[in-house]
Amino acid sequence: MMIATIHPSTLSGKMQAPASKSSMQRACAAALITKGEATIVNPGHSNDDQAALGVIQALGAAVKHISPHEIQVNSSSENTPVAVNCGESGLGIRMFAPLIALHATAVTINGEGSLLTRPMDFFDEVLPRLGVTVQSNKGRLPITLTGPLQPADIEIDGSLSSQFLTGLLMAYAAAGARNVSIRVTNLKSRPYIDLTLKVMEAFGLKTPVNNKYESFYFDNTPVAKKENKVTYTVEGDWSGGAFLLVAGAIAGAVEVKGLDPSSAQADKKILEALKDAGAGMEISGDRIRLYPQELKAFSFDATDCPDLFPPLVALAAYCTGTTSIKGVSRLAHKESNRGLTLQDEFGKMGLRIDLEEDVMQVHGGNGLKGAHVHSRHDHRIAMACATAALKAVGETVISDAEAINKSYPDFYDDIRGIGAAVEVRRIH
């Protein structure tokens, strides 16, 4: 187990945003089904990214690390494994399951940690309608799929996560879907579907007609043949970058490079929250500078970007007044039940958080006190507590601090590089 101790700090400096695991994992899936050679530039190396690379290798892709900044994927050959492991990646299981279901022989999908408790009823309900035999553990992992998946007109519920739709869109493209539609009700996190379609297009895959996010139609037009070599650059990560921006807003002038304001990533909406809170901010291309100013409470709808809840709470803690954040219903099936976890762990630091149906009320502006907190094995909780601790009174100790490895393994090193007083040690 890792323990991280954060002392009150004044930040100053410039840094590079981490690679987006949303972009990286989609690139891995697209490289797998493109059937050729792909070069992935600026690859991520988080646990979720490593799990995605492991899955595509199990399915026959050859992965070669050209340098720390480039990975080459050759997917011209195929392999049908007995089993694959998606680690603890929710996107991984939901995106790769339909791709695995393209195979005619049985493949068992395993996972780790919190993924073992996440509901997978979607596959039980939807994949059999596409010709896939599904065996699951009462809607939980492990799950065994026997295909091949046959694209057909289908309607799905998108209220739990857009990640299921991402997997189906890629599987339909890989299977050569023609004249079929995926109809979607109550779709959440629409920007992530924009990212999926953007990645599919970059890899030369057939992309469907998007009818106002209510249906996605694969027409009869053949996909234009592209050269069998693709180069894709993984975007900077707005999800991890949000913590760096919030840190700058509360603890010192920080410039973060590599976050594209025109990105399809949902979490770029952190800029709206920072602006509404009155944070000092300057944007020039992919360089964003944050500096402390008097912060005020704000209202924010995080329904389509629920991963922003943790950095938003860290920000709201230092905003005078009561901040209202909508979208609590999206938090139950994350690495932890994030609504309750944020309430409990930030409560230890003296912050009052009320949960009222789909709305979180954060009563900020009274300062925080250092405390012993726990990540709850949730990477974003660890980073939120560390960010908030930068201006707390006294030191904050985070147990199971290694949870950050899921998405942003360099987080403690990166904030230390801009002046954060961070001590990390392992205990047995």
- Measured between the Cα atoms of the first and last residue, the distance is 6 Å
Write down the Rg: 21 Å
CATH architectural arrangement of the largest domain: Alpha-beta prism
Helical element count?
12
Poorly predicted runs of 5 or more residues: none
- Count of the domains: 2
Strand order of the largest sheet: 22-23-1-24
User: What global shape is seen?
Assistant: globular
Number of strands: 24
State the helicity in percent bands.
25-40%
CATH homology superfamily of the largest domain? Enolpyruvate transferase domain
Question: What fraction of residues sit in β-strands?
Answer: 25-35%
Query: What is the CATH class of the largest domain?
Result: Alpha Beta
Biggest sheet, open or closed, and with what strands and sense? Answer: 4 strands, mixed
Structural class: alpha/beta
Mean pLDDT: 95
CATH names the topology of the largest domain as UDP-n-acetylglucosamine1-carboxyvinyl-transferase, Chain
